[in-house]
Amino acid sequence: MERRSLLKLGVGAAALLALAGGGVALFQPGLAAGRLTDSGKRVFEAVARAVLDGSLPRAASEQRAALSAQLKRLDDVILAFPAAVQAELSQLLAILSNGAGRRLLAGLSTDWPDASVAEIQAAFDDMRLSGLAARQQAYHALRDLTNAAFYADASAWRLMGYPGPRPI
Amino acid sequence: MTSTTASTIPDPIRSGLQRGWRVRGGAHGPLPARITCDVAIIGSGAGAGITAELLTHAGLQVVLVEEGPLKSSSDFRQLESEAYPSLYQESAGRKTADKAITILQGRCVGGSTTVNWTSSFRTPPTTLEHWQQHFGLTDYTEAALAPWFAQAEQRLNIGPWLTPANRNNEVLRAGARRLGISAAGIQRNVKGCWNLGSCGMGCPTNAKQSMLVTTIPTALDRGATLLVETRADAFVVGHGQVQALVCTPVAGNGAPVHGAAPTRIVARHFVVAGGAINSPALLMRSGVPDPHRLLGKRTFLHPVVISAATFDERVEAWSGAPQTLYSDHFLHSQPIDGPMGYKLEAPPMHPVIVSTTLTGHGQAQADLLKQFPQTQGLLALLRDGFHADSPGGTVQLRDDGSPVLDYPLNDYVMDGARRAFLSMAEIQFAAGARQVSPVHEMARQYTSWAQAREAIQALPMKPLLTRVVSAHVMGGCAMAGHERQGVVRPDGVHWQLANLSVHDGSLFPTSIGANPQLSVYGVANRLATGLAMSLTGRDVQLVA
User: What pTM value is reported for the model?
Assistant: First the structure.
């Protein structure tokens, strides 16, 4: 069951997984009961640093607080998805948390917490223009979920000049 | 932010519940183990609402089954963070199998009518002619349908929008005029509209005449039962007809409620109106006869591509009635079964929808989103289903029984998308845009029409590089005049099961070529009136 739905990420992901030489047992799930696991959080925190670069506060302590709030919002966004979507996301995060999977799917040689914003962004640019659907799909999933969680919050609206709903 | 709506604006749903409406499921109490009624309607959107009003008018005992929650004006706070998870299928993130198209579909009482942008068009005559010629729908003529549309328009207050268009829409008119292209006003289903622009998050003032505030309350006042947060799992089929419907209580994200028992609904007749992905999926899970392998096939989306423009002045595309002007110029510039035509409209923009739909990341994205107040958007609805190279998509079931749509974006569709990018950029520059950016991973912000034209002609038009979205799912349970061509007959009744009807957008044998809500209303009006007559011998009307 686990392996069958993993294959639904696409032929590309299946091939990558085979290349990575990993059985499903070697992978830590990205979600548990619909919530991000520690390994899932590590991926999404690094994704947020790269996708939201230019929108996050620059001061270290403020940025840490913003990333922590981002992960909390993301947890709520993910919890609202149906089980089938959560299962795919959990598997995507599992592949990305594994060293071999990260290198093959994201093309990132440095582990997520240690990777610089520039390294992650370069990896994302390769992913989104990749000829392999699985790499493009992974980029869209990471990027869109990050933006959905971030820009849903009123604190991000001032960055866009959006005044919020008109009072009624 | 606290809601002020409860104190200032009457809430028709809360009042109805206080009057004693029969609503069960979720916070409204557990479902009974067994329900017997005359007609069970699956869904509560455009087709279901019209059907429920007419059947209850005929004196029939009706039960509506809705997977989403019952929300209303007091809950609608114009917040994307609340609206998408509670009111949309898959949290507004429903995607096709290859993830190349994002689909916006309602999942709440009122269905997509609760969250749509109010655009109301009758089915175009060219579309009806195609159905007559190719699908044997000989009585689907413009003249025969006109009274059914007129009644729906009267019942739902569909009429011209007399308030000036917002600047987002004015760009379409201004650019089209300079290029000698026709543009016109869109009719809307509103009464006392506040011109807020947040229709996609549910109407906080009850101005939008969705099923949530019109037909569903009428049916509930006439004694209908509404089951919410309840999934229609499968029909029990036997002896050549549907014997029962089995349902399960579900949580907000669609997961079955732990330990809750299923409900069995026994009815004389069943009407499927769950939307054009969920309706075929329900029939597939139920194993209904499908001798010609048509079920879930030819599912259409009006695949949409988007062009974003930046102006020197503020556009504030979030503010004011969302879609009020359109151009059909590029639907009429070639034959309906020729290269794919497209309808142009100007969509509303809010932070989540714009940040997830536009492309890029990092500083480039931050810079793009800083221009949000000056950003204008056009969209092109590609008219799919009229050409041999446009067979649409196929609904499939996942291991857990939930549906997923496989919709390959082939070269024929992507040729239409490229021409649409060109048309939209030309219109935006003609209206004075400083920069135009087709929503494509490899596009940049172009500063002149000549530059944009050259760049768009060279863009690789591939899925996942081109951002494609859809809010119009149609087909999959097509009606046709011949059994070999359709899942249901022209009267909406299933070709093989006489006590099963389909009354939603899944009926359409092609896409509509216009925003489909009024097409669903008009057709459902006709079919439900016929169904009421066949079940009761009574002639009922949507309006007197």
Answer: 0.96
